[in-house]
Design a protein that fits this description.
The complex is a heterodimer of chains A (694) and B (574). Chain A is of the alpha/beta class and 694 residues long. Chain A has 17 helices and 36 strands. Chain A has four domains: 74-216, Rossmann fold, CATH 3.40.50; 265-493, ATPase, nucleotide binding domain (Nucleotidyltransferase, domain 5); 495-605, Dna Ligase, domain 1, CATH 3.30.1490; 614-690, no CATH class. Chain B is an alpha+beta fold. Chain B contains 15 helices and 19 strands. The longest helix of chain B has 29 residues, at 3-31. Chain B is globular, with a radius of gyration of 25 Å. Classes of the chains: A alpha/beta (694), B alpha+beta (574).
């Protein structure tokens, strides 16, 4: 018997609360309270408890995710942060990758570093690449620095020395001295925050951690107190960008790992659904109001990465943001959501996003003051949305306003009528998502066809059918509760932690002792963190190494066996690399030596099963009858068709019907194009399958 | 289906072409072995119609292949007529004059078939790992010494790789596995593009792409004509001098803009060099076209319609049109200077169009230790290439970027990675104060790098540094960027070109050039000057003496005193 679990997801507009009980779910949506985000969470929790008639004591664990860290960086609302670098290297942050991410734009600008130059200090010291001390730390100079930090009113400091991932002694000593001199100062050290080779990424990550730390620490303190005051004594777990859970204590130390945890929730829900419907190779598409997130799943696993970019400043372009080297779910995010705005460029081409109408003023059809056409306006004009039946009937969509916005900003510029322009806008945004998916897949050598597309988020179910056609995909899944994905995903997340260390080593001279000792150290570090005393499963260990052919610039993450390594394992690791290389690149290069750069150990504990997993719903096979008809534009056919209208909550597992169809539920609407057959699975998921030959 | 939606479909298909060449490029980057392909993006990928006119080129890639790869496809069609091409064929060359300018660049061209009919051509170019000969050294006296030369020839025939050609290539390369891998990568890259094109044609029920091709080229041409119409008409000449190898090299560019076309001619430029820095015409064309496009139509997608309105020429025998068998391997150092040269012409045509000069040629560190080089037996042998750059020129609307390559798109390699693979130690890599040319908009700063060895052993540096004698010049009253300095830490100044040995215990010290400033520095916003002083980008002395900004003891601008100082000073015309 499991107790109740609580999940809270703070988004830009709404805070979602899901209360999972032994016999089902209750969910609440309250407005986000940006000034004191914990207030929204506490209000929502109170409402959910009252509605479910559950006492605070019944809650066994509370899980939380928030975009606070991301927003603090994007809006530059973090702490006054100093960087202390090795003498001669304070400009690492400013050099960035030393390249132009936009070839033709002579006015390209990089993002400003989070620690401006006057707040970047240097300490005389130097560690070599082999960990040896080339220049001892000048402790007197560090003490003198403390005074400068005080005078500069520093709230948080990042220490990032060259090769500290290999020998942390100087960073640790510097922290000790500064703590003595400036008790209470927040300090982030690179060998803890990002113990990996490559000085820019490490410094950027460490400084970002320092930048958000005071804000997150105080927020988490207030939230914990608030929950306690309400009588919730259960442990509070935080969801990280890797899609796994950790304690508040760890989150306070590594707040940067909380960045982009919402999208991670969507990916975990996708993974969960993929297992239920037996889709071992899938694409999870999460399309909300502002952006679309796309994740590829292989053998039910989302690809993980240890690099992401936050706060892109230049048209969402890769390279224009701040790099963070933290464990993340490898997703791509593009500016395509229900609120994305459409316009026409100087070439007479329709352009959609990344500008978004957001929730306010919102799309023109919301009648909240929005004048420019958004994707939702175009969907409305194409008949995909029922103006009377949007968001559970809480909002009436105004078709005339949508038409006017599209006429004025798009149709006139390309000399056509509003319905045609609307079809064009939707076609372009669908094409953008399909193209982003293809390019992302080709970066990893992944095939796309034969995958299942799992669509979550308010806007995805409207668009997934057309995107599937563009990607050559034949099977779509619209999960139960597709419209509120992330918070549900939090409940499916494991408790896990990845500990990493860089140690560059040729596998020809594989140093057993060093690697065995390194993994023992990583295991000890991770073990403390996942040992949370909550009702999650047994600890499972996985190991990985980032390897490459010596001289090649591209690392490949390879999973390693979990055991102490012995003689001959240098060769067996090299073989594992060859196998992985073959999978991705279809070839190996005999004779080249293999080197490993970074070693990762992950400990994880699976979440308890949810009620939905334990018992399948009762399946009653039968053909569902539509409750009405709507005329909808089917882009596959380039024409309007009469679609049957169905209400999702009236559809029983086992129900079947054929496209074209519109399936309406409170938070979203699914459009099944003409070529698809529809069925409701035993778990209640909507499954769309392309008819053969269609 | 109405006519409006038909037009939108064409736009979608155009987007798809742009996306599929991006996939083509990413595949190449992922599969290739050559370091510069992956790290520096020294590659190109594109799709062409059956007449060999380029329809789309990947954004990922180098300016050095702009237009040159596109021209190369025409050479292939001339050598191997379309009616002789079969499904599963591919062709190859590394001809510097019919490809992209030196033997390292392999271009592979593959016809794409749909339902048995040739519908398009894909081309991809990459800088391969090694092609034998003297490698990257500019010391060869002719192209024959620079490595293996493969004329235009079949590489894959009906799906079968030309095994003899691969054997010959392997036998001539120091890195046979990597070279073979790079050639396979080029073929795979074109196959990726062709497969996606077929998918699109099936999706839209197309039997050819002629209508789409016409749509792309017509609408681009319309925009290109509009862009040219907005430019002043006339003829302007501008010259730029660089240090060169044994003697300075002069570039003289004459820009002509008429109602519909842009012409750049390099008559008057220096003759060919005896070093391998000469440009085949195609390569001079590539970098000049890139510079023109940055000014005229930076947002326009790259295709035949853009290229066919930009015409680049140079007299045969000049360093920018060196005929075979001139040595050309290090032609990038010259080619990278051409955007700055042509910017000079645009600035004369209309002030405010073009930025000031920048470092242009990147300051790549080529370091090595080997008994044959240093005469020292102890110590670790290594070779290392570390991409580094000085500053960009200031733009009329913004400061130049510090320590950033332009026009090259190279990405720097982490110092820690270089140090982990070699005994090298970087003791300093920081912004160089006062190196950005003063101006209303400030030139980008250069950087100072100091590098030594962890071992008690000497190492060699292959110096190929520019802008040591001839700094980047400012425009419109802006000051010049600081010149570069190459020396030992112990003091001795080293020549900017050639092989030097850094003795055991000593360090190489590089002060990289800054970009030129734009506009009179005395008109720079005093608050921006104050910020530059706080950031240490400029010294307090420069703020006072050059920018004529008065500051109080707290480092704040004294507006009244500044006004007085600026009014009393000599006013330079902007």
């Amino acid at each position: 018997m499991i107790g109740c679990r609580l999940a809270a997801d703070i988004g830009g507009t709404f805070t979602d609360i899901v209360l999972e009980m032994p016999h089902g779910f209750v969910s609440e949506k309250v407005l986000t309270t940006p000034q004191a985000p914990e207030q929204g969470v506490l209000t929502g929790v109170r409402q959910a408890l009252a509605r479910a008639r559950v006492t605070p004591e019944a809650i066994e664990v509370a899980i939380h995710g928030a975009t606070l860290a991301t927003n603090a960086i994007i809006e530059r609302r973090g702490a006054r942060t100093a960087l202390i670098a090795t003498q001669g290297f304070r400009d690492t942050l400013e050099f960035a990758f030393g390249h132009r991410f936009d070839q033709y734009d002579l006015l390209m600008q990089r993002p400003e570093p989070l620690a401006p130059r006057p707040l970047r200090f240097e300490a005389p010291e130097r560690i070599g690449a082999d960990g040896s001390v080339l220049l001892s730390l000048d402790e007197a100079a560090v003490r003198a620095l403390a005074k400068q930090l005080r005078d500069s009113k520093i709230e948080s400091a990042a220490i990032c020395y060259m090769h500290a991932y290999r020998n942390p002694a100087h960073e640790a000593r510097t922290r000790d001295i500064l703590t003595e001199e400036l008790p209470g100062l927040y300090i982030s050290v690179s060998h803890e925050i990002c113990p990996e080779i490559r000085e820019y990424e490490r410094a950027s990550t460490t400084v970002a951690n320092a930048y958000v730390q005071p804000l997150i620490a105080s927020y988490l303190g207030r939230l914990s107190e608030g929950l306690l005051a309400m009588g919730i004594k259960a442990p509070l777990l935080m969801i990280m960008s890797s899609g796994s859970l950790t304690s508040v204590e760890t989150a306070r130390k590594y707040p940067i790992r909380l960045v982009e945890s919402g999208p991670a929730g969507g990916a975990i829900l996708g993974q969960h659904v993929a297992r239920q419907v037996g889709a071992n190779r899938a694409i999870a598409l999460d399309m909300g109001g502002t952006t679309a997130k796309i994740v590829l799943l292989n053998e039910y696993q989302p690809r993980h990465a240890r690099m992401m970019e936050v706060a892109r400043v230049h048209r969402f372009r890769a390279g224009s943001g701040l790099p963070l080297r933290i464990p993340v779910i490898d997703l791509i995010e593009i500016g395509a959501g229900g609120g994305s705005l459409a316009s026409v460029d100087s070439l007479g081409r329709i352009v959609v996003g990344p500008r978004s109408a957001g929730a306010s003023p919102g799309p023109a059809c919301y009648s909240l003051g929005g004048k420019e056409p958004a994707i939702t306006d175009a969907d409305l004009l194409l008949g995909k949305l029922d103006p009377e039946n949007f968001a559970a009937g809480t909002m009436r969509l105004n078709e005339a306003r949508a038409r006017e916005a599209i006429d004025m900003h798009v149709a006139a510029a390309i000399r056509t009528d509003a319905p045609t322009a609307a079809a064009g806008i939707v076609e372009i945004v669908d094409e953008n998502m399909a193209n982003a998916t293809r390019v992302h897949a080709s970066d990893h050598g992944d095939e796309i066809e034969s995958r299942t597309l799992i669509a979550t988020g308010g806007a995805a179910p409207l668009h997934a059918g057309r995107i599937a056609r563009k990607l050559g995909i034949d099977r779509l899944v619209i999960p139960v509760g597709a419209g509120v994905g992330s918070a549900h995903g939090f409940l499916r997340a494991p408790v896990a932690y990845e500990a990493v260390a860089s140690h560059v080593m040729s596998l020809k001279s594989f140093n057993l002792q060093a690697i065995n000792a390194l993994f023992a150290r990583l295991r000890a570090e991770a073990h403390d963190i996942v040992n949370l005393g909550v009702g999650y499963g047994d600890i499972v260990e996985r190991r990985f190494a980032d390897m490459r052919y010596r001289g090649q610039g591209h690392d490949l993450q390879v999973e390693l066996p979990v055991r102490d390594y012995g003689p001959g394992d240098g060769e067996s690791l090299a073989r594992l690399f060859d196998e992985a290389y073959l999978r991705v690149y279809n070839r190996t290069i005999p004779g080249l030596s293999v080197e490993a750069l970074t070693w990762t150990l992950e400990l994880s504990r699976a979440p308890p099963q949810s009620p939905g997993e334990q018992t399948s719903l009762r399946v009653v096979h039968g053909v569902a009858k539509p409750s009405g008809q709507r005329s909808v534009f089917d882009a596959d056919l380039g024409a309007r068709v009469d679609a049957g209208v169905y209400h999702r909550n009236a559809l029983q597992p086992g129900a079947v019907f054929t496209g074209p169809a519109l399936i309406i539920e409170d938070q979203t609407t699914t459009f099944a194009p003409s070529a698809f057959d529809c069925a409701v699975s035993e778990h209640g998921h909507l499954i769309l399958t392309r008819r053969s030959g269609a | 289906m109405n006519e409006g939606f038909e037009r939108i479909r064409k736009q979608v298909m155009w987007d798809r072409l742009l996306s599929l060449v991006e996939e083509q490029a990413r595949t190449l980057m992922r599969v290739a072995f050559s370091t510069v392909v992956r790290e520096a993006g020294d590659l190109s990928a594109g799709v062409f119609n059956a007449r060999g006119e380029m329809l789309a080129q990947a954004v990922t890639g180098t300016p050095g292949h702009v237009n040159s790869m596109a021209r190369s496809v025409k050479h292939f069609i001339a050598a191997f007529p379309l009616q002789t091409m079969r499904e599963g064929d591919a062709y190859v060359t590394n001809d510097p004059w019919k490809g992209t300018g030196h033997l390292f660049d392999f271009t592979v061209v593959s016809p794409a078939f749909c339902k048995g009919k040739l519908v398009a051509i894909f081309a991809a170019t990459a800088h391969v790992a090694d092609i034998g000969g003297n490698g990257p050294s500019p010391d060869s006296r002719d192209v024959y010494a620079e490595g293996l030369f493969i004329p235009l020839m079949p590489l894959v025939v009906a799906g079968q790789m030309n095994a003899q050609l691969i054997q010959i290539a392997r036998a001539n390369s120091r890195e046979p596995d990597k070279l073979e891998g790079d050639i396979h990568a080029l073929v795979a890259s074109n196959e990726t593009g062709a497969a996606q094109l077929r998918r699109m044609m099936n999706e839209y029920g197309l039997s050819d792409i002629e209508e789409l091709s016409a749509h792309i080229l017509d609408s681009t041409d319309r925009s290109m004509r509009e862009a040219i119409a907005a430019l002043p008409k006339g003829r302007w000449t501008s010259a730029m001098r660089i240090d060169g190898f044994d003697e300075p090299i002069d570039f003289v560019a004459t820009l002509t803009i008429d109602d519909e076309n842009i012409y750049v001619d390099f008559a008057g430029s220096s003759p060919m060099s005896r070093h391998g820095v000469n440009c085949p015409m195609c390569y001079a064309d590539a970098y000049t076209t890139f510079g023109v496009k940055c000014i005229v139509a930076p947002d326009l997608a790259h295709n035949h319609a853009v290229l066919s309105r930009i015409h680049i020429s140079a007299p045969e025998g000049c360093i920018l049109n060196a005929p075979s068998p001139a040595p050309v391997t290090a032609r990038a150092i010259i080619g990278q200077m051409l955007p700055d040269t042509v910017f000079g012409c645009f600035d004369k045509a209309r002030a405010g169009l073009a930025p000031a000069e920048g470092t242009a040629a990147s300051w790549t560190l080529r370091l090595a230790a080997d008994p044959g080089l240093t005469g020292h037996r102890g110590g670790t042998r290594f070779t290392a290439q570390s991409f580094q750059s000085g500053g960009m020129g200031a733009h009329p609307l913004g400061d130049g970027l510090a320590a950033t390559p332009f026009p090259s798109g190279v990405r720097a390699i982490a110092v820690e990675i270089t140090e982990a693979l070699t005994p090298l130690v970087f003791w300093k890599k920081e912004l160089r104060q006062d190196s950005g040319g003063a101006g209303r908009m400030r030139g980008g700063m250069g950087q100072s790098i100091e590098v030594g060895s962890r071992e008690d052993a000497p190492f060699a540096v292959f110096a190929r540094f520019e802008r040591v004698e001839n700094p980047a010049r400012g425009r419109a009253g802006g000051g010049d960027g600081a010149a570069g300095v190459v020396r030992l830490k112990s003091g001795a100044v080293l020549a900017s070109k050639g092989l030097h040995i850094v003795p055991a215990g000593d360090r190489l010290s590089l002060e990289m050039p800054g970009g030129g400033g734009y506009g009179n520095p005395e008109t720079r916003d005093p608050v921006a000057v104050q910020q530059d002083v706080r950031n240490g980008y400029i010294s307090a002395d420069a703020a006072h003496n050059v920018y004529k900004v008065a500051m109080n003891q707290r480092g704040e601008v004294d507006m009244a005193a500044t006004k007085t100082m600026r009014e009393l000073g000599e006013t330079r015309p902007e």
